[in-house]
Design goal:
The complex is a heterodimer. Chain A is α+β, with helices and mostly antiparallel strands. Chain A has 3 helices and 3 strands, in the order E-H-E-E-H-H. In chain A, helix 1 crosses helix 2. By secondary structure, chain B is α/β, with parallel strands linked by helices. Chain B folds into 2 domains: about 80 residues, no CATH class; about 325 residues, Aldolase class I (TIM Barrel, Alpha-Beta Barrel). Chain B is built from 20 helices and 16 strands. In chain B, strands 12-10-9-8-7-6-14-15-16 form a 9-stranded mixed β-sheet, sandwiched between helices. Chain B has a 3-stranded antiparallel β-sheet with strand order 2-3-4. In chain B, strands 1-5 form a two-stranded antiparallel ribbon. The termini of chain B are far apart.
Chain lengths: ~100, ~500
């Protein structure tokens, strides 16, 4: 069956955002990532027996927008995230290692 | 006295900082999102407002800011705010990390008098005593038990049918009790049994040591007998007699039951629940089939898709809520567990829904032949010919088990927050990693979430409960909150869930 192509503006969506969004479709589709200087996109080729839903494009765009938000959160909070977990679980570090340190 | 206008006190909140968070569009309302904090606090909000929040476009007088701050999704002024409560909350959620394995399962025999087609264990004929745990193995297993640091230990006897080798149940219990005179741990004993052929002597022993009994009851007589055949076709009658004898001797609360769902079960959620109600059970566990043992061989005939299970579960949940509305208190144990994570701050004792995984970190299985495993599923895989998750033998110290290739293999995929797709999932603070299940189903401990039955089931159940809670009346909310927050039941629930009768 023919693939379904969706292209996005590269200045709006990073490679990682599109790859993460595309990964969510790997249950029902073969996924090909496309990339040029100004565009990035995917071709979704349905597995045998899978029908392409009528709203596939809008679903993917929603997912891409959500992944873009997740990327924003990740960029802003990555350091805090790591420091919080390390601080919270400090007491779970091995006692033996701590006593010989 | 003259007051300044409100504008004198507020401005655009340029200084707020995001804290680590995850979100999910609600499947039943694409205009809203479920947003969770690092420690599992959450709220639901309009997606448009969420986008403004992430983009730092919320005005300082937006009432959402207070909600978001209270749930540790943002911090307004880092110089005047403490993150200690968030860390404390996170530590509380993960407190099971500090104790080591608390659930210790002794498989005293593989013998069983049933021939259940969905059996997840490699049962043996009831005369096959070669599959009994011997005295040397049991003594060494008890030595290993006390090498773990947990101050509270649950000792569960399992089979096959453990009562077919009751002498070893008694010997292990007495050895543990003798050792505990100096160890002074808090002990809880459970036996997972059909309860057929219970003797007065056994009941007396169980009463003396305050055992809990867990059995399997699959629903009405026709369904139970079809699922759990005996040559005499009287499994249901014998189970009911065992439940009654157990209740009479030990008290109603000492006997719990679990349902294993076959394809036939999915057609009759109301009948299964009504059977439990008729018998006076206040909890029910609706367990889907596992991909192990005989269940794997009969999957095409007895099995079903995760979507079919979720459809069944939604109907069962509606019926259960109706049963509660009619005045009979009854909970579904897995719903109670998930709701306790959604609505409460505490860690739970259920080993299959932890991150890091409960396999080896929360539970240890001592098999009849002296082999030790990090989970019952690992034991089942070994019985199917793949022993890669075997920790070692009972004559080795547990330090060697923890350094085993099996644990290293498990640890590659033990932390849900670090797994592909899970790392972004809004439910991950409330969920867990199950690397052995993923290995069994997908051949890889990390697994592929878009095709993972475990993930679809977890997401489906969280969505279902959240949607039900979101739309519930006050009375229905109280019912669901009672399931989540009644602590004695929660303890019993976890015990029931951890038992595979």
């Amino acid at each position: 069956m023919q693939g379904f192509k969706i292209m996005l503006e590269r200045r709006l969506f990073s490679d990682e955002v599109v790859a993460r969004a595309a990964h969510r479709y790997t249950h029902f589709f073969g996924v090909e990532l496309l990339s040029s200087d100004i565009e990035i996109g995917i071709v979704l080729t349905p597995h045998d027996g899978v029908q392409i839903p009528a709203d596939l494009k809008s679903r993917f765009l929603n997912d891409a927008l959500d992944e873009r938000l997740r990327e924003s959160v990740r960029i802003e909070t990555a350091d805090t995230h790591r420091e919080l977990i390390q601080a919270a679980l400090r007491e779970a570090s091995p006692r033996r290692a701590a006593s010989t340190a | 006295m003259k007051f300044r206008p409100p504008q004198a006190f507020i401005g655009k909140a340029e200084t707020y900082h995001l804290l680590p968070l995850r979100f999910r569009r609600l499947p039943w309302d694409q205009g809203r999102v479920f947003v969770s904090s690092l420690a599992g606090d959450w709220l639901m909000m309009q997606r448009s407002a969420f986008e403004r929040f992430v983009g730092h476009d919320l005005a300082a007088d937006d009432p959402l800011l207070a909600d978001l701050q209270a749930r540790h999704l943002l911090v307004l002024d880092q110089s005047r705010s403490s993150l200690a409560p968030l860390m404390s909350q996170y530590r509380t959620r993960k407190s099971y990390l500090l104790d080591g394995p608390a659930l210790h399962i002794f498989v005293v025999s593989l013998r069983c008098h049933h021939t259940c087609s969905y059996c997840q264990v490699s049962r043996q004929q009831s005369s096959a005593t070669d599959f009994d745990m011997d005295a040397n193995v049991s003594a060494l297993a008890v030595d290993r038990l006390f090498e773990w640091p947990a101050t509270e230990l649950t000792i569960e006897f399992q089979g096959g049918e453990p009562l077919l080798h009751f002498d070893q149940v008694r010997a292990i219990t007495e050895r543990i009790l003798a050792r505990n005179v100096t160890e002074k741990r808090s002990l809880r004993f459970v036996v997972a049994s059909t309860l057929h052929d219970l003797t007065d002597s056994q009941l007396s022993f169980f009463k003396e040591h305050r055992f809990k009994l867990s059995t399997s009851l699959d629903g009405p007589e026709w369904l139970h007998n079809a699922n759990r055949p005996r040559p005499e076709r009287d499994s249901y009658r014998r189970t009911l007699e065992g439940i009654e004898r157990g209740r009479t001797a030990l008290g109603d609360d000492a006997v719990s039951a679990l349902t294993t769902l076959t394809k036939r079960s999915l057609e009759v959620p109301d009948a299964i629940i009504d059977e439990y109600r008729k018998l006076g059970f206040h909890s029910i566990s609706l367990r889907p089939l596992s991909p192990y043992g005989f269940a794997a061989k009969t999957h095409d005939r007895k099995g079903y898709t995760t979507e079919a299970f979720l459809d069944f579960y939604a109907r069962a949940l509606n019926h259960l809520i109706e049963v509660n509305r009619s005045g009979f208190r009854m909970e579904e144990t897995y719903a109670s567990l998930l709701l306790s994570q959604l609505l409460g701050p505490f860690a739970h004792g259920y080993v299959d829904l932890r991150s890091p995984t409960g396999a080896g970190f929360g539970a240890v299985i001592y098999d009849y032949d002296g082999q030790a495993y990090p989970s019952d599923e690992a034991r089942m895989l070994a019985a199917m010919g793949d022993a890669r998750f075997a920790l070692g033998r009972v004559d080795q110290p547990v330090e060697q088990w923890l350094a085993s290739p099996a644990m290293k293999h498990l640890m590659r995929a033990a932390v849900a927050e670090a797994l592909p797709t899970c790392s972004d999932c809004a439910y991950v603070p409330l969920c867990g990693a199950d690397p052995i299940d993923h290995f069994a189903r997908q051949g890889d401990v990390v697994g592929h979430r878009p095709t993972s039955d475990f993930c679809r089931r977890q997401m489906g159940l969280f969505d279902l409960l959240l949607q039900r809670y979101d739309a519930a009346s006050t009375q229905e909310r109280e019912i669901l909150e009672n399931w989540a927050l009644r602590s004695p039941a929660t303890e019993q629930v976890e015990g029931a869930l951890n038992v595979a009768a």
